[in-house]
């Protein structure tokens, strides 16, 4: 096959403990899925239907990488997240069947241009541009799940230069993994290779050049990202 430009290479993540890699297709992200983060963003917590935004698949950054401080922001934030890796196609999935579609889980960091997000939001403009930029989706190795179950009694934590900023049980999510998958599948057909970032707890804050940011989820290990200079 001849192409007029070079086609995009397959994006993938390592699978923990294996030589094989997990090929990627799309990135979906859940907004406002921890009540304490909803409050710190200036909203009143309520159990409304989950909403989603997206990131480009080539925004993926693996563990240990350096991410340059991005353009169009002076308030660059971290957001620690559990990531779902989808392993089975489905549409209009019932909540009780949702875990059948999970391949595994990973540790993620949804990097955000916060000042741009607020400026767009205040003008009632879509704020995807504050989320969907180069190297904005940090993700660790995918850990195969047993019967699709997320890590039991797990906590998610984020440290910057060794100082703890975010710390929450995953059980504090407003929408569970099963509910997130079911809701997403009513809008799109989920397919193997899709990633779903499940939202962040309170404690989000700024990153500066030279900072080292580490996210951990019980049972899934840790990911570390160094923030570089603006390019």
TrEMBL record:
Record Pfam families: FAA_hydrolase (PF01557)
Domain Fumarylacetoacetase-like C-terminal: 27-227
Keyword rRNA-binding in annotation: no
InterPro entries, per the entry: Fumarylacetoacetase-like_C, Fumarylacetoacetase_C_sf
Top-level taxonomic group: Bacteria
Keyword terms, alphabetized: Hydrolase, Metal-binding, Pyruvate
Keyword hit for Metal-binding: yes
Gene Ontology MF term list: acetylpyruvate hydrolase activity; metal ion binding
Name of this protein: Fumarylacetoacetate hydrolase
Organism: Devosia limi DSM 17137
